[in-house]
Amino acid sequence: MVRSLAGAHCALRKILVVEDDALIAMELGERLADMGYAVLGPAHSIAEAEAILARETPDGALLDASLAGGVSSVPLGMTLHAKGVRVAFCTGYDRVKGAPPELAKAPVMTKPVSDADLKDGLDKLFA
Question: Exposed, middle or buried, 79 (CB in 10 Å: 0-12/13-18/19+)?
Fold first, then answer.
């Protein structure tokens, strides 16, 4: 699913959303679309994210740090970073466990994330 809001300041930017909680993923996707981003996904697993990435390259990615079963999204973040895709984390934790130096400056938004914090995190992501 790709959604966008024409005329917004970020309408051309595509963001991959990787979130295992279906309700949070849907709500986050809607909020991003309302802010004018084109949303790729949401992907509920690393495999789903990789399938999306095989078809499209996002400008940025918003990753849940810990997916179902305790699967870390950090390796996916490293893969995206290596491809020049900007990475941010939206997680229930205040930091990302096991984040390497390459992702040390990735914005971390703590769930539940407010609209103001989401906008601030995205501004940092694309600064």
Answer: middle
Backbone angles phi, psi at 97, to 5 degrees: -70, 130
Boundaries of every domain in the chain: 14-125
Cα separation, 3 vs 59, in Å, equals 14
Residue 4 to residues 82, 99, 114: CA-CA distances in angstroms? 26, 30, 20
2 Cβ partners below 8 Å, 6+ apart? 14, 38, 39, 40
**β-strands 60-63, 66-67: how paired?**
unpaired
d(CA 74, CA 97): 8
Predicted confidence (pLDDT) per residue in 78-99, tens digit: 999 999 999 999 998 888 888 8
Buried residues in 41-60 as b, exposed as e (16+ CB within 10 A): bbbbbbeebeebbeeeebbb
CATH number of 14-125: 3.40.50.2300
